[in-house]
Write a structure and sequence with these properties.
Elements lengths: L1 H24 L3 H15 L1 H10 L10 E4 H11 L1 H6 L3 E6 L3 E4 L1 H17 L6 E7 L2 E6 L29 H12 L2
Parallel strand pairs: 2-4
Antiparallel strand pairs: 1-3, 4-5
Helix pairs in contact: 1-2, 1-3, 4-6, 6-7
Length: 184
């Protein structure tokens, strides 16, 4: 139930914000794209939960193909644009071309969870920097931070440093698992 709730939380919040914006400001293409991406995300919850259950296996080797990581990062930035706008977050990005062999859904999930975490834990009015250089993804922010002695625990399932902000503590476990699968 916690896994399912976590996976639904971001797209449902994005859909509600987009609908609110449409109601107040009229329909803009970015709001429609956010709604479309949110619906697709909700439709993949079953796959995400299956991924978590199988954990150490790549689900289907036929899904391994060339993935344009730069495009996936740009799509994530666009997907989260309404959430970041609502929190008055400035997102600065520098994205260089990068193509890897992987399951595209895994890469989307990895990027989504990293960016989502950054948005959740950055105070309103803060800044997030997303860099993709030499196929290395770096997301930094002006968020609440975390002490060095607690860094290794943030990748443990259900671990949360802050019980007020954020989800249920599975996003970075997903990131860790995907990184282990591909040797990132």
């Amino acid at each position: 139930i916690k896994d399912s709730t976590h996976e639904h939380n971001t797209p449902v919040t994005t859909m509600l914000l987009a609908l609110h914006k449409i109601d107040k400001k009229g329909c803009k293409p970015v709001y429609l794209r956010s709604l479309q991406m949110s619906v697709r995300l909700i439709g993949r919850v079953y796959e995400d939960l299956s991924f978590l259950m199988l954990k150490s296996q790549v689900r289907d080797h036929t899904q391994i193909r060339s993935v344009n990581v730069a495009k996936k990062v740009e799509e994530a930035i666009e997907f989260f644009s309404i959430l970041s706008e609502n929190r008055r977050l400035e997102i600065i990005h520098s994205i260089e071309p990068c193509t890897i062999k992987a399951d595209p859904h895994h890469i989307e999930l990895l990027i989504k969870n990293i960016v989502d975490n950054s948005i959740k834990y950055t105070n309103p009015g803060g800044k997030i920097e997303i860099t993709l250089k030499d196929c290395e993804l770096i997301v930094s922010d002006t968020g609440i931070g975390i002490s060095k002695e607690k860094l290794s625990a943030i990748f443990d399932r259900f671990h949360r440093e802050n019980s007020v902000t954020g989800g249920f503590g599975i996003g970075l476990d997903i990131v860790k698992t995907i990184c282990q699968i591909y040797g990132f």
